[in-house]
Hints:
Layout: E1 2-6, E2 9-13, E3 22-23, E4 26-27, H1 28-44, H2 47-65, H3 72-80
Antiparallel strand pairs: 1-2, 3-4
Pfam families: TraL (PF07178)
Protein name: Type IV conjugative transfer system protein TraL
Keywords: Membrane, Transmembrane, Transmembrane helix
Amino acid sequence: MSLRRNEMGLVPVPRELDAGAKIFIWDFDVSALFVTGFAIGVMVGSLLVGVVLGVVFAKAWSKLRQGRAKGYGIHTLYWYLPGKPFRRSPESFRREFMG
């Protein structure tokens, strides 16, 4: 966000209209990974382990995602999850369609 001055003072102006979801100051996917690590720690029975796992997951994902496209997380899930749950279009080798 950049700050623009008007007659009432400084006003935050978003740089993009399609800004992704955020939880506090973190992107949604990073915070979801932190919560996942925290939940694993709670299931194991140690909050400290959960916080450490959450921080490690979030930092690793942030570092992996840095400098890549906006939808890198969805792209990664599309290619590596079994069963292709995000498939909306037919396979590229199909040339004839029914209907």
